[in-house]
Amino acid sequence: MKFTETFANVLLILAIVGTTAGIFLYENALENDRECITIHFRTYENGNPTPNVVHIPNNEKSCFRLTSDDTTHMFNLPDFGIYSEPIHPGKWTYVDFTPEEAGEFSFVCTVVCSPLHSKVRGKIIVDN
Amino acid sequence: MKKLRGVLLVLISLGVLTICLLAFPSAGKAGNDGVREIVIHARAFEYTPRLITVQKGETIKLTLIADDVTHGLVLEKYGVKLEASPRAEVPSSVTFVANEGGKFHFRCTVVCGPFHAFMVGEFVVEPYNKLSIAWSLTLVVAGMAIIGVQRYGDNKEKDPVPSWSFELTKFKWVRTLLKQRWFQFALMLPNAFFFVVILVAAFFGSPIGNANFAIIFVWIVWWAALKFFFIPIGGRLFCSMCPLPLPGDWLEHKALVKKGHESPVSKARKGWPKGLRNLWTQNIGFLSVCLFSGLILTRPIATGIVLSLFIIGAAVTSVKYGRRVFCRYICPVSGFTGMYSMVAPVEIRAIDPQVCAEHTDKTCITGSEDGYGCPWLNYPGGLERNSYCGMCTECFKTCPEDNIALNIRPFGRDLFVYSGRGVDEVYNGFIMLACALIYIAVFLGPWGVLKDMANIATVPLYLAYAVAFILTNLVILPGLFYVAVWLGKGWAEGKMTPAKEAFNFVPIVWQNFLALFKKGVKGPKFPKNKSNVHLMDMGLPPVQKLFTEYGYTIIPLGLAGWIAFTVAFALVDISYAIPLLSDPMGWGWDLFGTASAEWVMYVPHLVPFFQIPIMLVGMVVAIYVVYRIGIHHISNKKMLLKSLAPVFFYIIMITGFFFWLVL
Ligand code: SF4
Ligand code: SF4
Ligand SMILES: [Cu+2]
Ligand SMILES: [Cu+2]
């Protein structure tokens, strides 16, 4: 009985703590391997794209991994003429490009996503 | 009697005739030549027009215009798939020939907000007549059922529910298995694992409902499993493996598998207020959860909060009162599981009452070295109904005489057990029925305004919804049933019970209700029923009593309604579960390679062919149940039928209303 009880305790702790820790550790490991920068698009009312300011290196290929937390959006970096495919909630859209100029650039959304759609924007800072 | 049968036969033949006429329709009106252009505007969460009617053979050009955010439209039958963004330069349109009659639902394909999965419109290609066929079928089947129950329902030899039961614990290994202390833990453990995934997903995963394990696995997968399998086949089987009370159990027992500490049963018996030893807490709890279902079903975080509240509630009450006071008296899921579990074909019962009578220690109540006293506060030796037995298997362990059995038995037998009944249980049945009907309208219907209400788009809209919701649940559906019972009694006795007498509880309820808001003031208590003997001039039992008895007919009807409702959304939405197995958090994982599986509907066009028979079976069982309950109280067949006639009518109307909603 004593053995069974200990065994049950171990199993339960594994199920609770092990599962929780496993989920976050796995995501952490994946994130370290990811080459793309993740941006969650949100409407202006929901807090705008997050993170809102992203640093990338100059003259190097950068990749963005985009998703939406509410409705469909689209990523547009006018200064570089970059457009993404529509960013659907719960799905992932990728864009990549190589900046050839340092500085601060705004990215905007090009799909009407709420009455305040025109305020959806974020910043990409190309470091030297 | 002859007259009644004649009337029923005429009704049945009329119904059959209608079905024949409808089933072989003359060719529909020829569609006009040329192309018919239809423009559909989409907004979250409604299409305008929400109902499109065309003639068979017409060529249709559908154009989708999005008014607020990006939407899609899929009309599977005709292979139509559109997607439109607001202010799009090139409108999204498609042309096709509507060459097959019927009613088809078109749905949104692009997540456009919380209620996205419930955004539907209806496309009817005439001739379409499923609804009229279903209605005629309802009449035919009801008529035959009424004739049938008269013939078989009260005849001991022909009665379809004889009292057989087959003891599963006869097999030694079954009993040995149930007596293992680790048995229940082994059932709970995998559920605990899933539950942890659910909670982590709810609080940290994607906020998009259909990309989050918590929403899809709780409200689609678990809910469907509960309605299709656990409840109708296993009764409270899920209660035996539910992981929610696990922390509370541990706090009380300080042990998982071995027999640990146990609070005396008196602690719970004395602690939990007497006035709440019924289903009312659960009824109110279920109603409150339902009032916020628009949020809970669509936002992972809301699901997480509700489930956490369950765990905390179970833990707190375990410490305060001991045992499963939470499961027995509070858990909102437990209430209806208990009522519907009476239908299930399994039961846990004592084998020989004589053995129990002679066993004065009653270790199944007090507990012993081998196990806990019934955590659900039952006397296992005296169980007569499934309603409050959580199938925890403790009594198999504590009974020194091996006098407890797990039986297979006919479906629904507990509905004919007359002890232990009460208005609280009947009300639970009505609440479940009302919620099923309301949910069908809100979640499966095309009405955007209902979705806005449930989604709390604006406060006034929500308040209107809440009031309508509560009235339907607590007043309208049970009230109409009460009126039906009252009319039936009046007809049977040849004189109506005066309304003043029949409805004398209304002012009392009202004053009790008002008293809730005035501190210190106690509303008048219900007068105790003086006696059940009411045999003066061969009268029927009082209306209130009849209401509580006949009310159990709502249980099979409501269960059928829930199963039929679940069929519709399970077939449409279950495929969301496939990518979530690989990516439960919606973070972009791919554990098993299924993450990119697309959403598909499984046989959506067959949904009505499941729903119609399920609902008709529910109706027939309801008719049978109320008849059987009736003959228990009224032996005069003529009076019985008169008293039941309005109740039959009620059952038929509910079935018809259900068909109107879904077809
Ligand atoms: S312990 Fe067994 S024999 Fe004794 S009262 Fe309970 S069920 Fe009956
Ligand atoms: S009657 Fe037996 S199986 Fe049912 S809850 Fe009580 S102890 Fe558990
Ligand atoms: Cu946008
Ligand atoms: Cu939509």
What do these coordinates show?
The complex is a heterodimer of chains A (128) and B (663). Chain A is an alpha/beta fold and 128 residues long. Chain A folds into two domains: 1-33; 37-127, Immunoglobulin-like, CATH 2.60.40.420. Chain A has one helix and eight strands. By secondary structure, chain B is α+β, with helices and mostly antiparallel strands. Chain B folds into three domains: 29-127, Immunoglobulin-like (Sandwich), CATH 2.60.40; 166-357 and 365-395, no CATH class; 423-662, no CATH class. In chain B, helix 22 (554-573) runs antiparallel to helix 24. Chain B is globular. Residues 530-537 of chain B have low confidence and may be disordered. Chains A and B meet through helix 1 and strand 3 of A and helix 4 of B. The structure holds iron/sulfur cluster (SF4) (2 copies) and copper (II) ion (CU) (2 copies).
Order of helices and strands of chain A: HEEEEEEEE
User: Which superfamily, in CATH terms, is the homologous superfamily of the largest domain in chain A?
Assistant: Cupredoxins -  blue copper proteins
Approximate strand percentage of chain B: 5-15%
Provide the domain count of chain B: 3
Fraction of residues of chain A in helices? 25-40%
**How far is it from the N-terminal to the C-terminal residue of chain A, by CA?**
67 Å
Which structural category do the helix and sheet elements of chain B fall into? alpha+beta
Which structural category do the helix and sheet elements of chain A fall into? alpha/beta
Oligomer: heterodimer
Distinct compounds present: iron/sulfur cluster, copper (II) ion
CATH class of the largest domain in chain A: Mainly Beta
